[in-house]
Specification:
Elements: H1 4-15, H2 20-25, E1 30-31, E2 42-43, H3 64-69, H4 73-96, H5 132-147, E3 158-162, E4 176-177, H6 181-188, H7 190-197, E5 203-206, E6 210-211, E7 214-215, H8 220-230, E8 236-238, H9 243-251, H10 257-266, H11 280-285, H12 291-307, H13 328-341, E9 343-347, E10 360-364, H14 372-375, H15 388-398, E11 402-406, H16 426-435, E12 438-444, H17 472-484, E13 488-493, E14 505-508, H18 516-524, H19 557-560, E15 578-585, E16 589-596, E17 602-612, E18 622-631, E19 636-642, E20 649-651, E21 657-659, E22 663-668, H20 674-680, E23 685-688
Parallel strand pairs: 3-5, 4-6, 5-8, 10-11, 10-12, 12-13, 13-14
Antiparallel strand pairs: 1-2, 6-7, 9-14, 15-16, 16-19, 17-18, 17-22, 20-21, 22-23
Helix pairs in contact: 1-12, 4-5, 5-7, 9-10, 13-18, 15-18, 16-17
């Protein structure tokens, strides 16, 4: 296993040979070579959110929110292992050719484990949803898969953005996110703490915003007192990109760039993504920073490089060939993930489609043949994209089914051709829907609409959403199809809560990655069964929610929302039926006997929720255990679900964790709320403790 003390000793020895100027030069993300010491140039900035990103050909898995919808820890880790395999393969080949550019290193700035607290946040699809426990478990397994278990780090993962960060995007450079002690320790910090303590994540990235008055990338409270002193973090801290510049330009907590650099490094920000640390020597000259502080940051960074085996001749990962990217096996894994991530929201019996009875299908909509609808953001480039149309056409060809295709409308504009009248593709969509046995409408968003400020903003402001509706052009299309189609299946590609009322059956596909079209076809025609579950609450309207800038958890997420949602957290339908026969509590586990009472093999997600008898408990029971399981038709099995070690605890108003004397567990396949029970037809078993 990795020896941090040995790596730290080697880092100290190497850094001791550097001049002050050389040490300062290594604190920027694009660190220059120091040829006299045999140190090559290194760019710390790489992204692997759901596949190696922005560096050419790589396997594109479902976007992070889709991975969360799998509720599958084991598959999550396997996917991350494949991603790190491809990252190493590309690094090995490119560095041999002297290419040490951005997006080609071994320090990867993933995963994003912020809490998706508000559906308007454009970057929410980069996260694992709204629940701290689900986020913790998936974050840990993703990091373990990335970092590996060998003598060296396979790649160095990064938990971001520490810590209270989830929009609005438009004001993130000067916004102060205010959260009380209870919300901090119950919602915003737990996933970070678990990835530090359990997964031993090598890096943590700060956020752009202030947190309770302190800029996150220079916060003594977060970076020193919490991360290092309380949690014992041993790795390095990196700023979000150009976030340190915000200290003086936007937050106004400092007056100059040297002052900003000093504030960041003194409070433990070792690496600057940006250029403010170019002023580090000025900060030294002005007496704002000591050489010891620069040395410490430099030693932390080189400790990571030694842990990665960058200066070793026995690193097992150096032998990974460049051909270990974009493989057939990796494509099959991407397909499996896409199949397990899609969520069946509604079905009046229209699905599954029978390939013996359906002779003509109309595939309509701006996301039908869209690669962007597969990708999400922070994505690589696949050589194997299968769009929804492509997947359905390939399946149809095998079964003699005719496919009619119409764009139907622009993704968000009122016409597809500048010289045409508004709604110029609606008639085509209507006539094909009339001619087809079934119409499959592929609607939603893409990462050009929802995403990060600066990257997006065609329809929505700075990547955030203003409401929970699809663009008006698509609303008109669905109204048309509702009148014209014999049966309408609505497939929604998006990374967040949307309220789309039309359809005999509704599928939420997320941004499903390179194999999304193949997965959709197999699911719609019943070759595979739906088994994805919602990792966030779907609300009916943003009017039901607090102000976007309010970071209090009151009336947010399934734990605190007091209204009735559109679809609950943890919800998803399948083609088969399950029953829960028995549930018993063991030592840190719940064993559940489940039967597949339907006529097809399938998978489901066992879910355990806890309601503590305490005034400090959330409004509703919270998730404390989950497990994806497979059952053949007619099969009954008993499965153990591991419980959160903090199941019987609550966080009080002072942010302290307390034991609850009594609590109730709800073991089943959904939340115990009445809407989940009504939608699924199954009531969880209640166990009092």
């Amino acid at each position: 296993m990795r020896n941090r003390e040995e790596a730290r000793a080697k880092a100290r020895e190497l850094v001791s040979k550097m001049t002050l100027e050389e040490k300062a030069s290594q604190l920027k993300y694009d660190a220059p070579a120091i040829e006299r010491l045999g140190i090559p140039a290194y760019n710390w900035w790489n992204e692997v959110l759901h596949g190696v990103a922005r560096a050419g050909t790589a396997t594109v898995f479902p976007q992070a929110i889709g991975l969360a919808a799998m509720f599958d820890e084991e598959l999550q880790e396997k996917i991350a292992d494949v991603i790190s395999q491809e990252a190493r393969a590309k690094y090995n080949g490119q560095s041999r050719h002297g290419d040490r550019d951005i997006y080609k290193g071994l320090t990867v700035w993933s995963p994003n484990i912020n809490i998706f607290r508000d559906p308007r946040w454009g970057r929410g699809h980069e996260t694992y949803g709204e629940d701290p426990y689900l986020t913790s478990r998936l974050g840990v397994r993703f990091i373990k898969g990335l970092q590996g278990s060998g003598k060296y780090l396979k790649v160095a993962a990064c938990s971001k953005h520490f810590a209270v960060h989830s929009g609005p995007e438009a004001v993130r450079h000067h916004f102060d996110a205010k959260a009380n002690a209870k919300d901090m320790n119950e919602t915003y910090l737990p996933a970070f703490e678990v990835t530090v303590r359990e997964a031993e994540v090598e890096s943590v990235m700060g956020a752009y915003n202030r947190v309770n008055g302190e800029p996150a990338c220079g916060s003594e409270t977060l970076l020193k007192k919490t991360l290092r002193e309380k949690w014992g973090f041993q790795g390095h801290v990196v700023s979000d990109c150009w976030a340190v510049r915000d200290f003086h330009e936007n937050h106004k907590v400092t007056a100059t760039a040297p002052e900003s650099a000093a504030l960041a490094i003194k409070n433990g920000c070792d690496l600057n993504c940006g250029n403010t640390y170019l002023h580090m020597m000025e900060a030294v000259q002005e007496g704002l920073v000591t050489e010891d502080q620069i040395t410490l940051a430099c030693e932390r960074l080189f400790t990571t490089r030694f842990l990665l085996g960058m200066f070793a001749d026995d690193c097992e990962y150096d032998r990974i060939p460049v051909t270990d990217t974009d493989t057939d096996d990796h494509d099959r894994l991407a397909l499996k993930a896409a199949e397990k991530s899609m969520v069946l929201l509604e079905n009046d019996g229209t699905l599954p489609l029978d390939p013996q009875k359906v002779r003509t299908i109309a595939v309509v909509g701006p996301n039908a043949d869209s690669v962007m609808a597969l990708e999400g953001n922070y994505n690589g480039t696949s050589s194997r994209y299968v769009t929804f149309l492509g997947g359905l056409r390939a399946y149809a060809a095998k079964h003699g089914i005719r496919v009619l295709y119409s764009l139907g409308c622009h993704l968000f504009k009122d016409r597809t051709s500048n010289l045409a009248q508004a709604d110029d593709r609606l008639a085509e969509a209507a006539m094909y829907a009339e001619a087809a046995d079934v119409t499959i409408a592929c609607v939603g968003l893409d990462a050009g609409l929802e995403g990060e400020e600066g990257d997006t903003g065609n329809e929505y402001f700075s990547g955030d959403k203003i409401d929970l509706l699809i663009p008006e052009s698509q609303r008109k299309l669905l109204k048309t199809l509702e009148k014209s189609a014999k049966r309408l299946v609505t497939v929604i590609a998006a990374g967040s809560n949307l309220n789309v009322p039309e359809g005999n059956a509704k599928v939420f596909a997320w941004y499903p990655g390179q194999a999304g079209g193949t997965a959709l076809a197999e699911l719609l025609f019943g070759e595979k069964d739906f088994s994805g579950r919602l990792p966030l609450t779907f609300y009916k309207d943003v009017k039901d929610l607090p102000d976007f800038e309010d970071y209090a958890m009151t009336n947010r997420t399934y734990r605190y929302f007091t209204g009735e949602p559109l679809y609950p957290f943890g919800y998803g339908l399948s083609y088969t039926s399950f029953s829960i026969n028995d549930a018993k509590v063991g030592e840190g586990t719940v064993s559940m006997e489940i039967s597949n009472t339907g006529d097809r093999d399938s998978e489901t997600v066992l879910q355990v929720y806890v309601a503590c008898d305490s005034p400090f408990a959330p409004v509703h029971p919270r998730l404390c255990g989950f497990r994806r399981v497979a059952l053949k038709s007619g099969e009954t099995k008993c499965f153990e679900v591991t419980l959160d070690p903090n199941t019987d605890t609550v966080i009080d108003e002072a942010g302290e964790r307390r034991k609850a004397e009594h609590y109730t567990l709800f073991a089943g396949m959904s939340q115990p709320d009445e809407l989940s029970v009504r939608l699924t037809g199954i009531r969880p078993i209640e166990i009092k403790k």
